Amino acid sequence: MNLHEYQSKEILAKYGVNIQRGFIANTVEEAEAAAKKLTEMNGNEGWVVKAQVHAGGRGKGGGVKFSPNMEKLKENAGNIIGMQLVTPQTSAEGKKVNFVLVAEDVYYPGETETKEFYVSILLDRAQGKNMIVYSTEGGMDIEHVAEVTPHLIHNEVVDPCVGLQGFQARKIAFNLGLEGAAFKDFVKFITNLYSAYVGIDASLFEINPVLKTSDNKIIAVDAKVSLDDNALFRHKDLAELRDTREEDPTDVEAGEAGLNFVKLDGDVACMVNGAGLAMATMDIIKLSGGNPANFLDVGGTADAERVQKAFGIILKDPNVKAILINIFGGIVRCDRVAQGVVDAYKAMGSLPVPLIVRLQGTNAVEAKELIDHSGLPVHSAITLEEAANKVKEVLGH
Fold first, then answer.
1. What domains sit in the chain, N to C, each tagged with a CATH number?
2. Secondary element (H or E) of residue 153
3. Average pLDDT for consecutive 10-residue bins of the chain (397 residues)?
4. 5, 6, 118, 345: which one is catalytic?
């Protein structure tokens, strides 16, 4: 589950990580009030208006604007709120900006230069350990840095059993070229950042940029946080931060129905029970000359209501030319699934595309007979080869 920048920063602040302060605003009037509140807090004018969407590269798309005075702030807020923001990480149509974060300007002048760094924390699955990835070249073009000058990207592997050690935090600060007060502040910063990562069961932290201010403070200017969905039962408060407006409506609908759904760009939809069988089914579709249109796992329950809901989600994709149901009857009997398919089909009246049903396992024979005698235009199969041939047949290959 992804979080907005302002939500991510609020979490970091609770763990003692220095952040660029700010307030969210849904209207120009709220943005003006937020700017005045920040001025009261730090005594400075100058604010940054940031679009709050689940996508990186907001600055490149015009979703981050500096505002040196109140008039410019109102202009920027008015332009960004409600815009369709297109970035390198969005689709061509972009994402609608529902609200903005009005943040303080932390790039104030001083005797020493400011410097931007890149820091992220994620799980290295190959090693079964956490990894801190960092670079002296922070900012909007970190992807370019990784591609052109990969030697500027460093990493530090952290054993989750012992946590981030002091020597590791100091090593990172040293590799970033820090010294004096900035060195000490960064050691505290990265230590608290790692504690936050572990404390909320995150799957990704990305802070870009981490800023060394002109007075040698270390601040998270931006923050991207992704949470591990499987750990949300331990964090009810964090689960409530979900913004479904930022997600695909079909994915949201599938989740509410208890279906595991991933949309793909093919023409043959599949409905299965179990992730392994889903992968095998997609292979069957590919081998038969089609392309999978989705990954849809109905789980251990495949009654008429759930099957009908799955049909509805699948048929929202105009590219679907056929549907393949591939169920292994273990926890749930095949004849019960078959009855659910028949009932769902009748409840919907008809389907605009051919339907192939392959049921194997407990009561598979009874299930095939039930479908064959239902009077519905359903193609039934027993083996994987039969299912593949049926897909070829309906696609005209």
1. 1-20+109-247 (3.30.470.20), 21-105 (3.30.1490.20), 249-395 (3.40.50.261)
2. strand 153-158
3. 96 97 97 96 93 91 94 97 91 91 88 87 94 91 84 94 96 96 97 98 96 94 95 94 88 84 88 85 85 83 73 88 85 80 81 86 84 83 81 77
4. 118
